[in-house]
Amino acid sequence: MAYQPFTEQTVVDHVRALGLIEEGGIAQCEEIGDGNLNLVFRIRQGEQRLIVKQALPYAKVVGESWPLTLERAWIEQLALRQFAEVVPRFVPNVLGSDRTLAYTILEDLSDYEIVRTGYLEGKTYPELARHVGEFLGETLFATSDYAAGPIEKKRKEREYYNPELCDITEKLIFTDPYKDAESNNIEAALRPDVERLWHDKALKVEVAKLKVGFVTKHDALLHGDLHTGSIFATTQETKIIDPEFAFYGPFGFDVGQIIAHLTLATFHDPLKRFERFTDVLTVWETFEKTFRHNFTNAVEPFDTEGYVDDLLQTIFADTVGYAGCELIRRAIGLAGVADLETLPETTRLERKRDALALGTALIKERHEVDSIDDLVTLLSGVRV
Ligand code: SR1
């Protein structure tokens, strides 16, 4: 069957033919995708509920002028299945997938909320930070050379060859925000601030170093787009979704991204600053504890005493730097976030300036930030 984007009718016919919903019933289906790239259908028939996520051959956020590989859907379901082998409780069940039609069928998570949306409504997810820290500590270790050994790791790595999606990240996070690129989305009043950024040579050198780390380090399987819109949660449970940007990259990238988005949440809701920065602390501390614990089973010679301390120092500096890059790109690049975009104008401009200043400090000072407490102090130093 050749690729065709589904409609609300054809997707129901398809899952019925697969036997995933019963013959003869009346199914309800709606397209609920509000992300940048894909169609997402929710199908219900009686007690049966499921989600079909289908890739479009272009970036929905821009339109058909930006073609995009359908292979990302295959990468996404591979990554979900891989994460499920390590931490099944933190990912939705994959019920089916098709490489040509570029879809993944998932268990419906209607009882969960998208964390970014929940935060905008003032909601709280008490277990989220610990769960995300565990997810990172488990999956990053399990897919690394430290656990897998060289042959298995290289074999797996080949499956996650994802150049087009990596290229998006390389452009949108590390390149375009630092020049007058067409993809940027810069508010007129911010232009002077952004031009200062473009003239900051020391900053651009540090961003180039972080970019080369992103491109050349093949530490472990990353989610690749771990923001609060990629997490479903209830007060007790957490499910990580949407790993279509998955690839083997630097340990600190996902950790940095989620820390940046917890910080962006405080820009929207300053009353939750203490909670969100405690979450930042918990994500890092849980990640570190889980990773260290797993490291007691590391293959030789990485089990040598002291090695993991050195490694965690590098991961931490990378984490701080990647968090800085993410703050900057979400303030002035393509794909802004509701945390900033839904603020009233004066506040929005102030917070975007804060994101630029904080991002710059994190990138330039990442080697001087000695501990997670120092990082939280730096993050919470921004006036709001
Ligand atoms: C063209 S895609 C823009 C952004 O949406 C995704 O969620 C990633 O964050 C990507 O950078």
Describe this structure in words.
- It is a single chain.
- The chain is of the alpha+beta class and 384 residues long.
- It has two domains: 100 residues, Phosphorylase Kinase, domain 1 (2-Layer Sandwich), CATH 3.30.200; 268 residues, Aminoglycoside phosphotransferase (APH), C-terminal lobe (Aminoglycoside 3'-phosphotransferase, Chain: A, domain 2).
- Helices cover 51% and strands 13% of the residues.
- The protein contains 15 helices and twelve strands.
- A hairpin with a 4-residue loop joins β10 and β11.
- 5-S-methyl-5-thio-alpha-D-ribofuranose binds next to α7.
- 5-S-methyl-5-thio-alpha-D-ribofuranose (SR1) binds next to α7.
What topology does this entry show?
Elements (H helix, E strand, L loop, with lengths): L7 H10 L10 E4 L6 E8 L2 E8 L2 E2 L3 E5 L3 H16 L7 E5 L4 E5 L5 E2 H6 L7 H15 L2 H4 L1 H10 L3 H13 L15 H8 L2 H16 L3 E3 L8 E3 L4 E3 L6 E3 L2 H17 L4 H23 L11 H26 L5 H4 L3 H20 L7 H9 L4
Antiparallel strand pairs: 1-2, 2-3, 3-7, 4-5, 6-7, 8-10, 9-12, 10-11
The protein binds 5-S-methyl-5-thio-alpha-D-ribofuranose.
The site of 5-S-methyl-5-thio-alpha-D-ribofuranose has 10 residues, from helix 7.
GO molecular function: S-methyl-5-thioribose kinase activity
Function: Catalyzes the phosphorylation of methylthioribose into methylthioribose-1-phosphate.
InterPro entries: Aminoglycoside_PTrfase, Kinase-like_dom_sf, Methylthioribose_kinase
Order of helices and strands: HEEEEEHEEEHHHHHHHEEEEHHHHHH
CATH class of the largest domain: Alpha Beta
Work out the helix count. 15
Question: What spatial order of strands do you see in the largest sheet?
Answer: 1-2-3-7-6
CATH topology of the largest domain: Aminoglycoside 3'-phosphotransferase, Chain: A, domain 2
How many β-strand stretches?
A: 12
For the sheet with most strands, the description reads: 5 strands, antiparallel
Shape from CA axes? globular
Classify the beta-strand content into a percent band: 5-15%
Whole-number mean pLDDT? 96
Helix content: 40-55%
Number of domains: 2
Task: Write out the distinct hetero groups bound to the structure.
Answer: 5-S-methyl-5-thio-alpha-D-ribofuranose
Point out poorly predicted stretches. none
Using the 3D structure, state the CATH architecture of the largest domain: Alpha-Beta Complex
Global structural class: alpha+beta
Rg on CA atoms, Å: 21 Å
First-to-last CA distance: 54 Å
User: CATH homologous superfamily of the largest domain, by name?
Assistant: Aminoglycoside phosphotransferase (APH), C-terminal lobe
